[in-house]
Design a protein that fits this description.
With about 100 residues, this protein is an all-alpha fold. It contains 3 helices and no strands. The protein starts with a helix and ends in a 17-residue tail after the last helix.
């Protein structure tokens, strides 16, 4: 990939990472949570992919953006997982069945 294509991909995944917190549907349990988790997984994968591409292309500033995207994706994933494994102060479940 050319440098501008790499930059474009990193910017697109960073935009996705920026709008994920404004998820318009319920994501506390069930299918909404699963789809939200899949979107967060795409952000994580895209951030890691962007890191690899920018490192190989020697694009320093874009590499920093990709790293920020990956860290933000990890924070979003921690917000999903921590309450469901008993680590956070609040507790939550994966399914909506009580």
């Amino acid at each position: 990939m050319g440098p501008w294509a790499v930059r474009g991909c990193v910017v697109l995944i960073a935009l996705l990472a920026g709008v994920v917190p404004q998820w318009p549907y319920g994501n506390s349990c069930g299918w909404g949570l699963y789809f939200y988790s899949a979107c967060v997984a795409v952000v994580l994968f895209g951030g890691a992919w962007g890191l690899l591409l920018t490192w190989n292309s020697r694009l320093g500033f874009t590499h920093i953006i990709a790293l920020g995207t990956l860290i933000w994706g990890a924070a979003l994933a921690a917000d999903i997982v921590a309450p469901r494994v008993g680590y956070a102060a609040r507790s939550a479940t994966w399914s909506c069945v009580k």
